């Protein structure tokens, strides 16, 4: 069938046509074996000319195993034949209790591509492609295949699908029909159906870094403000006598700073009243009674200005304020278990603003006011509904609640942010991923409870943010570098890989590349993945919808894979404009 090797150049052999050569279209991208003595080298036909074939070397068969890469080139006298059925099965895989069906080979139409579950799902993976190329359908089909495989029961799977547009609900809502142990859970920021669950994160689980992201902190000077606010919120949450004394101490210190300043009396009064308006207690409020010798005055009455331009009760009010100063309270320890609301945090921020060291520094005070405005915008929108005060919640209890659907364990947890602005959606995803990653790290038996964090429209969340500059790390970069050993695996799905963090893409081990045409994205993939060949890049440019190039640690060689449509489909199809237009037309006609 094949003639002799004419010559070998770099990693390509030029082979003459044989006498019984089949039609050219039957040979393109077909695999052949160069065989001589004990050597069997695998090649792929990449070009067909009138006189010769170009065959690129891929790897070598050693016994029944295939190894990527070629150390020794084949002899010029090697016999060349088509790949055998057994050799092909070694490349595409076979069904077992440790594998899953990916799709059909586009070259060998009677062969399925069946990677090992461990080879694919134990590593970070990326799925890229243009809108309409089949990414969402591909993800749905792959996961449906995993759960429909009777040889590989996946009861302990924890697949978190972070979904920007509510696409996957239709594809997985009836997963329990496959097996009663399989459960699907839909957590959303906008519940509509009865089974929908509102996203709620206990406020006590938020750390300093989470608050910094939520409040869009942009400078290091804002971190001490948030840190002090968080400390005060924890202390004030105890609602005991000592916490109340601490509030009085902070107010008293702020009032003294104003009283002994060089401002005019009327300016002092305005500032003091402003402090009491935003920060007040039983002892410090406008109606609090302050007793003198044989008489009493309300707090506000003590600041009436006399004819000489001074406070009429300056001695009385000064003595009263000094009684509430207790510097020993500054070393008060934070409680280990606490619970407060986002509104309590806002109150703590007000006390932070009047604290010594902040009010006298104009730059820091300006930074604090920016945080205050951003916090107010959160409290005045439905974003505040996603952060709840339900008592002290341990991270393990929160994670357990996430994966439980009623009394049964859910294998697919679909978290939907369809109606949330990108700024807050990204923060919510980061917080949830951080909590899952930290829980994984806390397990005594490493990687005993794997979590797959599959991010649809990943460019919406995994970006080149300023987190590393501000906090010293980006949670997605950290998971990409450290997550595999703890069982926290990223699945990145995107139509714009160029917008995603370089660090994350560099840590991906498996790729499914659907059709991509944007030059910047194609060039970016070439630059970020040095092992990707020009041939793979060329192939993915002309792929049909639902077809992808698969390569990485789960695949012996790069393969063109045709994925079946999922059943049922996700909500990812284009608008049927013709149907809608005709529907309106028909409706109008029927009304006349």
State the helix count: 19
Mean pLDDT figure: 90
How many strand segments? 25
Span between termini: 71 Å
Helical coverage, percent range: 25-40%
Structural class: alpha/beta
Q: What general form does the structure show?
A: elongated
State which percent range the strand residues make up: 15-25%
Which stretches are poorly predicted, pLDDT < 50 over at least 5 residues?
none
Sheet with most strands: strand arrangement: 9-8-25-24-23-10-22-21-11-20-12-13
Largest sheet: 12 strands, mixed
From the alpha carbons, calculate the radius of gyration and give it in angstroms. 33 Å
Q: Could you explain the architecture of this structure?
A:
Helix 6 (222-236) crosses helix 10 and helix 13 packs parallel to helix 15 (475-486). The mean pLDDT is 90. The radius of gyration is 33 Å and the shape is elongated. The chain is an alpha/beta fold. It contains 19 helices and 25 strands. Strands 9-8-25-24-23-10-22-21-11-20-12-13 form a 12-stranded mixed sheet, sandwiched between helices.
